[in-house]
Amino acid sequence: MIRIFSILAGLFFAGALAWSLLWDTIGFAQEGLPKTVEKAFYEHPKELHLASDGWFGKFDKKQVKRGFEVYQQVCASCHSLKHVSFRDLAALEYSEAEIKELAAAATVNAPDPLTGEMKDRPGLPADHFPPVVYAGQGHPPDLSLLAKARHDGAAYTYSLLTGYQAQPAELLKQFPDAKTPEGLHYNPYFPNLNLAMPAPLTSDGQVTYSDGTNATIDQMAKDVSAFLVWTAEPKLDKRHQVGFWWLGFLIYATILGYLAYRNVWAGKKH
Amino acid sequence: MSFPWAKQYTPKHPFMVWMDEKLPLPRLVYSAVGGGYEVPRNINYFWNFGFLAGFCLVIQIVTGVILAMHYGGNTQVAFDSTEHIMRDVNYGWMLRYGHANGASAFFVIVYLHIFRGFYFGSYKAPREMIWLLGVVIFLLMMATAFMGYVLPWGQMSYWGAQVITGLFSAIPMVGEPIREWLLGGFAPDNAALNRFFSLHFLLPFVILGVVILHIWALHIPGSSNPTGVEVKSESDTLPFYPYFIAKDGWTIGLFLIIYSLFVFFMPNALGHPDNYIPANPLQTPAHIVPEWYFWPFYAILRSFTQDWLFIIPAKLMGVLAMFSAILVWFFLPWLDKSPVRSGNYRPLYRKFFWVLVLDVLVLGYCGGMPAEQPYVLVAQIASIYYFLHFLVIVPIVSSIERPEPLPYSITEAVLGSDKAAAPGDKA
């Protein structure tokens, strides 16, 4: 009896699915695969290799520091970095005095310890990077987590920063309605192809590196991408290091465990 | 359960004798997971996943309780407190990555455990109750995992909560009020986040309770085995301690190696990048997808695109089907009438089993892809097979199939005849 009910239930679900399948197949036969301008012209990020890649990756601190300089001199005018504290910069080999100086240059809105009222004061090393007041349209995203908030984050940032170009004529021929709207900028590495941010890195030498590296656009884009990997995952070095030793221990313990198992089972058929 | 030859706990130390009289907890442990539990000697490595699943539950509870000490269940602070754990809490990154990947590991193990049950007929009499409790555990795991994913309050958290609670609104008449009642509002917000946090903390302990029942029910008939032939004599079994402790034990090492590769070297490989963007109710992500372990069921949900015969709403059918996809497992012990348990001796069932494995993998792949062609068409075909498999094929196959001859006993399968006990079994 239960099996008759079950077969009926099975046919009920299969029937409802077949109904959807039928109409969708008709629709598919008429329309074919979906064709959108994003599918046709979106480009996957370019290859980018950073020192922090891979299982044994470690940050190239000099590069990350250069990336911070790019952030400071270019990105910081619009984008905040709210999950990072000034004291975190110690990981980039900034001295305590330099960190205090960097923090003090920022204005932080915090409660006054005497009156409890919110007041502007110079930043302290324990403060996070303050919010960026942006008076334009929209709200530029915070950059702290960007490298983890996009597929293939570092390569994405690098490609985006170096990917601005004029809209290809081929695109307008195929999709006449897809002209980049006024105020937006075409970039094939951006998922919907047009973004509000104008190209931020426009000329070689735009940033002055403290270590004297030649600041080409490509160099700046790479460095700031490396920096954003660090802001998104400051504990990466530690994680790789701990993981390496832990895995070594595990392999050793597992071999011992396996030998113990063989020993216990010796002579027992199974 | 106790086979007559199972060893009994005999306390030696006077304190243990005294303890045994007052509270025979050591006796209970001895009979449950010690030298007093007799296990078929021929179980293969697929029988390790129950033990490993229990181990995963412990990882989740330990990491979860510590994470809860640092997390704030409020929409104002949830996202930032998660980042605080990652950056400022000592080894917080390890706890959080361990917990997030621990959920994935738990599901991998449990899926293997469930499919072991499908293949070897572990759900059949006299083990129906173990199976039913197992399905309850799986449902509780799904609820817990879903609510846990909401807690970081990223974009996928928010929109996942929106989609999943939206399923309830498919119920005619009362759907929308139910959804609002569950959320404590018209959309996911602080009320929803806070109650999800509370339930996410509670449910693992409910799971632990049902796991204890699951093991209790297991100890009534004892463990099944790859031949599906019941234990007949002492030579069929070996005590859990030391034999199966040793066998389960070393695979914990193996499990931890694979799990740690994810935690330490690719912690975000199984997650979605959008969940590192704070929740924004005004901006819908391009593709809303749940975590990978829900993909097969998500594909079934999305396969219903047309109102059936223009009457039954597609959304209602999708929700009904998605829940039924798991509910059918409850009926499996009574749908499969074949007296032979193990797929090793069921030539026809075995073929359909492997089709099901492939089918669920295809469903999973489609569920992770955007809801567009050709994925929807493929998912529809795979969903049809999924329901036909459990509701039509299994009952019919169990009636018409001619099973292969079974060994007389486990001992014969292991020691005697020239026929190997099982292809996956190391004789």
Automatic annotation (TrEMBL), chain A:
The chain crosses the membrane at residues 243-261. It comes from the Bacteria. GO terms for cellular component: membrane. Its cofactor is heme c. Residues 62-161 form the Cytochrome c domain. Its main location: membrane. Keywords: Heme, Iron, Membrane, Metal-binding, Transmembrane, Transmembrane helix. SUPFAM superfamilies: Cytochrome c. Pfam families: Cytochrom_C1. The keyword Manganese does not apply. Heme c binds at C75, C78, H79, M197. It is found in: Membrane. Gene3D superfamilies: Cytochrome c-like domain, Cytochrome c1, transmembrane anchor, C-terminal. GO terms for molecular function: electron transfer activity; heme binding; metal ion binding. Binds 1 heme c group covalently per subunit. This is Cytochrome c1. It comes from Novosphingobium kunmingense.
TrEMBL record, chain B:
The keyword Electron transport applies. Binds 2 heme groups non-covalently. A ubiquinone binds at H219. It comes from the Bacteria. Heme b b566 binds at H113, H214. It is a multi-pass membrane protein. Its cofactor is heme; heme b. GO terms for cellular component: respiratory chain complex III. Its main location: membrane. Coiled coil: none annotated. It is found in: Membrane. CDD domains: cytochrome_b_C, Cytochrome_b_N. Keywords: Electron transport, Heme, Iron, Membrane, Metal-binding, Respiratory chain, Transmembrane, Transmembrane helix, Transport. The keyword Metal-binding applies. Residues 15-227 form the Cytochrome b/b6 N-terminal region profile domain. One of its GO terms (biological process) is respiratory electron transport chain. Residues 230-408 form the Cytochrome b/b6 C-terminal region profile domain. Belongs to the cytochrome b family. Component of the ubiquinol-cytochrome c reductase complex (complex III or cytochrome b-c1 complex), which is a respiratory chain that generates an electrochemical potential coupled to ATP synthesis. This is Cytochrome b. It comes from Novosphingobium kunmingense. The lineage of its organism: Bacteria, Pseudomonadati, Pseudomonadota, Alphaproteobacteria, Sphingomonadales.
